Amino acid sequence: MPNLFIFQEEELGLAKSYGWERETASVCSGSLDGVEYSLRNRKGVVKMTMPRTLAFCSLSLLWRRETITLSDLLRFVEEDHIPYINAFQHFPEEMKLYGRDKGIFAIESWPDYEDIYKKMIEVATFLDLPRFPDITEDCYLHPDILCMKYLMEVNLPDEMHSFTCQVIKMAGIGEVDFLTFDPVAKMAKTVKYDVQAVAVIVVVLKLLFLLDDNLEWSLSTIAEKHNEENKEDKPWFDFRKWYQVMKKSFDEKKQKWEEARAKFVWKSEKPLYHSSIDRSVAYKRREMVVNLQKQFSTLVDSTPTVEKKNPSSFQFNWTEEDTDRTCFHGHSLQGILTKKGQSLTTKNSLYWLSTQKFCKSYCKHVTTYEESNFSLSYQFILNLFSFLLRIKTSFLHEEVSLIEKRLFKTKYSKTKKKSSRSRKVRK
Fold first, then answer.
1. 8 Å CB contact between 387 and 154
2. Structural domain contains residue 200
3. Predicted confidence (pLDDT) per residue in 308-346, tens digit
């Protein structure tokens, strides 16, 4: 009780020092929590913001090993399944928000994947959380399972899954210790599970088709000719046909997304006001706007409002029954594989590294990404997956490069030796 009394006295003293009594502070100038929140600017103090609330939710899902990735969570926010923009609308009437409280809850931007990811590590480290439950092979967040999910989503053949599993094993990114988040560790970092899985698929596509704007189209011509001559057999995967189907679906989906963003109303139905005096004015303005909207809607033939769909981890759905769009899940990779003894190998024996330049600092990230330096096929695939995850293309390119660095250690060490030798010669 004494501690609580001291806290209350300090709280009241804070209000008096700014010329308010307790009641006045809560009605006219924001709650005392809001005032104290805006004043705290000490180093090491982590303020709970709306983005950090999302980071905390993502940590909770990770702790429980739920079948929701960070990109899913942020997309559910975007689709208004999770209150985030104007979340205060859902507060009960007795929770009055005034003045400085507005700065906490008034969000005017969409959550960013990279920002929330960094805040996850920040919050977990600040709370001194222990090692999270292990991410094992039977867990949804394991790359083997996530790769299958994203292969299905982007309409690629099921046979590619065996290749993604091999890449995961060779790169050593499927191990429990690598995947499990440990905030107490010396280098606290969590895995970008969805980005990593998608990056593995990009690497496999490069292994199979090279993606140099040449080989993939040559293999497509061979597959197209085979499918015409053998219509009753299992069709070979045709990269060109897949590109045409996916580009059309992707363009349609992206256009709808851009239109929805452009039409999004940032103003809330339940307005925030700075004081009790402003309350009546704010509600009168809001009522006037609503009435005007109703009047205009009767004059204009507006399209009926579409009911909100239930949240889903899939944005694209492909079925064999869909006659308008080809489903490639059951197509064969035989046209791009060749028998070598008892095993199958890829006809393509070449591979190009996404980058050979990494930052010299401790982080070791990719220094630059310029689209003009890469093939159109590679750009399309990066853009497709980046849209799915709502991330920057450069962010995905960086993850692809890091997986390649683990896969092709000898190539990277050779380039490193060459560069060091050239420096010596120049000297």
1. no
2. yes
3. 678 888 899 888 767 678 999 999 999 898 877 767 788
